[in-house]
Structure formats: structure tokens, C-alpha cells
Amino acid sequence: MTFADFLPKDVSLTIAMALCAVAFVSGTARGFSGFGAALIFMPLASSIAAPRLVAALLLVIDFVSAAPLLPHAWRKADRKATAVIALGALVGVPVGTYFLSVLEPVTTRWIISCFVAALLLLLLSGWRYRGKDHAWLAVGIGGLSGFCSGLAQTGGPPIVGYWLGRPIAPIVARANIVLFFGASDFFSMISYATTGLISRESLALSLIVGPVYALGVAFGASLFGRASERVFRGICYALIAMAVIAGLPVLDGVLR
Known about the structure:
Keywords: Cell membrane, Membrane, Transmembrane, Transmembrane helix, Transport. The protein is mainly α.
């Protein structure tokens, strides 16, 4: 029995190895900067395999890796405020999932590339919401994040920009973010499962790619402290930008 025998149907050894390479780079970025994994993974992975497959793959990997963080986040988070913003995700995730399930792969890739480029600009701007608390705004941001997560698992920047701008302790803000994404991932798992996006193929592939992603996170974490946070963030932004460009469908005839 060879490694190829464990691969899902319609996924070649070359594709699996390429996804593992992308997962390692994405995990490394997350390990040393704390963000950016999905923004790197989705544009590149969607140019290698079907967007539906790689979105489900990333969801499973992230859901498993984030689960151990939830008990601590539950204790430290402002659960009432997080529940309000999670209401938006409850609506946004199924809408994003619907579009992922019905759009043509190339169309989905263009949307993913545009989304990630816009989210990169949001990160580069350093935006933080510092206005007053409004329930309708929190629900709206949760809905936007949920939509991005349902379509492409890229819902991080709006939530991070919102919570880190609030006048609350950093430990509470981080706990709120972790708890929100625990809820968002749970909604996504249900939504993906009911639309058939969570398949035997995506689960089997997650067993192969997931450990490589975890190695990347560990490797990235080991680099933390060896240079300034500013340098690490700059590297991550550059990787996201390169992923957007390399994943553009218009370059398929050149790069793939």
C-alpha cells in the first residue's frame, strides 16, 4: 500500500502534495503572526483543487485545531456581546455556503481573490472600530464575517478589526474572537454538511493535510520572538498578496 492509496478519489498525488505545501506555508504564517492562514490558503488551494473541496478541507482543519481553545475563551469572553455578533454569522454563513455550492469554480475563485484582496487592504489600513456599541452594527459585522466564512473561510479581518477596537481588555477581546469563530465554525460545519460540502473526500484529505498544517503552525510559532512583530506582519501581508496574484484564474495558462 502506498501513500497514494490513502488519497480521495479525483485527488492526485501531485495535488495532495501541492495542498500540503500551501497548508504548511499558511500554517507557518498563522504560527508566527497569529493570522492570515485562510487568506493565503484559499486563493492558492482553490487554484489547485475545487474551491468547494478546499473550503471544506480548511474548515475541518480549523475546527479541529481551534476546539481546544474554546473552554478558556468561554471563561474569559463577554458571552452576551459575542452572542449578539454571532447572530449575524448565523445568517451570513448559510448565505455564503449557498453561493459556494452553486457558483462555477472559476467564478468562485474570482470572488475569493477579490475578497482576499479587499480583506488585505483592510488589514493594511489598520482599521479598528472605535465608535459606539450598536447591536445592529455588531450583527452586521457578524453577518459579513459569516458570509466570508461560508463562501471561502475568510471571515477573520472584520471580526478582528471590530473587537480589537473596542474599549475592553485585550484578553477579553481575544477570547471574544476565539469564541465567535468557534460558533461560526459550528454554523459552517452544519451548513456545509447539509449542502454536501463536507464529504468523505474532504474528511480524508484533512487527515493528510491537517498534520502538515499543524507542523507549519508549530514552526511559525517557533520563529516568534526572533524578529519584531512588525517584520512578521509585513511578511504575512506579502504572502497574502502573492497568494492573491498567484491564485488569479487569468494566470492559469502561465502558472498552471
